[in-house]
Fold this sequence. Notes:
This protein has four helices and four strands. It has helices at about 10-25, 60-70, 85-95, 125-135; strands at about 30-35, 75, 100-105, 115-120. α3 (about 85-95) links the parallel β2 and β3 (about 100-105). The model has no long low-confidence stretch (mean pLDDT about 90).
Amino acid sequence: MRQSMYWDDFNRRVDETVTAIRSGSEPPVRRVAIFVTDFCNFNCQYCNGDRKGKHMSEAVFRDIMAKYGDTAILHITGGEPSIVPWLYPLLRQHGGKYRFHLNTNGFIEPPFNSVRRLKVSLDSCNPVYWDKLVGRRNAF
């Protein structure tokens, strides 16, 4: 079975879900969104995120990898995942085995070779406005 890039394979997922429901079984898990932190290294004007700085433990993340990593895309998001101290080393270590997708603000350079899809949030093409918007100098 070829590996899905999730968004690129919508029709296949619909067919799998319909077939599973008709047969009384559960559809396969194809994508797991993992919210690794509620903290961010920016202070965006438009964000109302929790600023308490809680992170998922590496042990919990590894349990998710063990349970879903062989069959599902592991989509990592947060707050800002790059500030979780153990995350980027772990992605570098396991990037060849698991299908990681990553949402980040890109301020801390992501491990490009360890993720299959990377989404970097930029809400302006104007560096001065962007830095003001996110509350951090030289963020663009």
